[in-house]
Design brief:
The protein has one domain. The protein has three helices and no strands. The two termini are 23 Å apart.
Length: 75
Amino acid sequence: MNLEALTNELTGLYKDIRAGKVEPAVAHELNNTAANIQGVIRLGLLNAKLQNKSPDLAFFKEARKAAVKKGVKRG
C-alpha cells in the first residue's frame, strides 16, 4: 500500500461514515490501523535518517515504482 492508496481508502471511509454505511466501531478500528501504519512509516523514516540511509520499507519501494511509472523525478 502506498500513501496515495491509503489516503484514498481513508477518504472513502470518511464518506462512508458520513453516509451511515459503516458502523462507528468498525470505522474506529480502521482509523486506528491507519494511524499504526503511519506510525510505522514515520519510525522507518526516522531510523533511516539517523543511520544516514535511504528508507528501505516496502511502502517507499511501491511509491518509487509509482513515481517512476508516472515520470516523477526525485529532488
